[in-house]
Amino acid sequence: MTRAVLPLLFALVALGATPVAAQGVRYTLVVDAPDPPRAALAQGLDLARWQADEEMTPDLLERLVRDAPPQARSIAAIEGFYDAAIDVSIDREEILVIGEIADVELTGYNTDAARSAARASRVERFREETRGDRMAIAADAQHRFRKVVSWGVRIADETHLFTTASVPAMTRLRQPERRVLDTLVEAGVARSRSEALAWCVKLVGEHEAEWIGKLRDALRAVQEARQAGPSAS
Questions:
Q1: What is the predicted pLDDT for the residue at 89?
Q2: Could you please report the per-residue DSSP string of 115-164?
Q3: pTM for the predicted model, two decimal places
Q4: Half-sphere exposure of 131 (CA within 13 A, CB side)
Q5: Structural contact between residues 35 and 7, judged by C-beta atoms closer than 8 angstroms
Q6: Domain segments of the chain: what residues?
Q7: Mean pLDDT of 52-71
Q8: Is the pLDDT of residue 82 over 60?
């Protein structure tokens, strides 16, 4: 049975690289994670296998670092901590972690209602069994990154979010926009202007997901181009 959710997610792989010769570097791998899977990671990562190589080059080290996260996910999944698929989204206030758990297998009375109830039961059991580990990981991550850590799981095509951060976002609206919110309140769609505004944002997110995704990709490309540019120093 799947045990703790993502005990490795915020583990840091610390690399201290030191030039040795014209083409050589040395580094020390430190896996900061619960044990297990710390021992399995320390032995299974390519970074661990190569760290004593005297002919290590900067290019090879860069590739090993790049390959480390998917290797770590695979190793941790084998160790039974979580399924390998993980989604992590970050904004200015919150880190939201959603990991996959195995779907239920029903025999006999296999209806949509029974499947839905079984999935809900598995999610709730998973939430309770992993509560202590998630709280410990969140406390460490919040100290390191100064952001609230929230959790969720995905089972089959369903996503269940646990407690997440609700952050106020101030805005100024002219009368036409306020009338839209007031109409939603008067129609019973929302209980207040703030709830109506949140409903509108959610609606845009659902119906314009592809467009918003393209915007995020464009912003990411701009950030990468800035980082690749010449340094001012």
A1: 82
A2: HHHHHHHHHHHHHHHTHHHHHHHHHHHHHHH-SEEEEEEEETTEEEE-S-
A3: 0.52
A4: 8
A5: no
A6: 1-82, 85-167, 175-228
A7: 77
A8: no
